[in-house]
Amino acid sequence: MSRDPVLCVRDAAKHYRSGDTIVRALDGVSLHVAPGELIGITGPSGSGKSTLLLIAGLLEPPTRGEVRINGQPVAQPDAELDHLRDFRRRNIGFVFQKANLIPFLTAAENVALALEIDDVPVREAHRHAVDLLEGLALGHRVDNRPARLSGGEQQRVAIARAIANDPPLLLADEPTAALDSVRGRQVMELFREIASERQAGVLVVTHDPRSLDLFDRTIEFADGRIVAETTSRQAPAETVAAQ
Ligand SMILES: Nc1ncnc2c1ncn2[C@@H]1O[C@H](COP(=O)(O)OP(=O)(O)OP(=O)(O)O)[C@@H](O)[C@H]1O
């Protein structure tokens, strides 16, 4: 059985004007992420990694090229991304370097809020949030506010929030940069689990070479282009290459 990629980025470019010059933040990038795949994006500062996530996350339209999610063409140069707000919320989870939890809500309330925004009734959202946090070994933290949690715990709550409505695609921008190596590893292992068990496609930008063994593939960027790709684990059996 073959499955379509969750994310397909085709010949994407993103150019910014800076005075008289054009910055080619992305310059013709094509990649795909299959269900169950965990992909690492690496490369030097300024090589276009975050720009790729902005384009893949439907937060910025590409200057050229196309983004498909689950086979559906959703972003082209003239795309009105505001119209995609609901689509984005249902299909894409985001995790950033900082957890950005709401400080006056408990861990469970932070996660539940993501579901309530999606019209899940309050009680059901809370129950689901608690279940999710328990599954991420945070059952003892559900009623704590973020200030009581370690950096790694906060980041795991942020991941629970990002996957609360079960999006098929998860995008993370340097999610372990603020963590020590042990907590950073735990967070990367969580992404591995989410990809394997929930069959989400997960794209993680990282400078951290210590977790590369967890990725199915590592894609290296330089000057807005893909310059190398390494297959680090055996690819999931049921995935196919991008068309
Ligand atoms: N809004 C913008 N306007 C002009 N130039 C931009 C804009 N956003 C990004 N750039 C430029 O595009 C290039 C790629 O930036 P990007 O943030 O994608 O790199 P990165 O690989 O994520 O870097 P880092 O590892 O430092 O986060 C850089 O030269 C950056 O200065």
TrEMBL record:
Gene3D superfamilies: P-loop containing nucleotide triphosphate hydrolases
Coiled coil: none
Keyword field contains ATP-binding: yes
Domain ABC transporter: 7-242
Gene Ontology CC terms, in alphabetical order: membrane protein complex; plasma membrane
GO molecular function list: ATP binding; ATP hydrolysis activity; transmembrane transporter activity
Family matches, as SUPFAM superfamilies: P-loop containing nucleoside triphosphate hydrolases
Xref: PROSITE patterns: ABC_TRANSPORTER_1, ABC_TRANSPORTER_2
Keyword Cell inner membrane among record annotations: yes
Protein name: ABC transporter
Species name: Rhodobium orientis
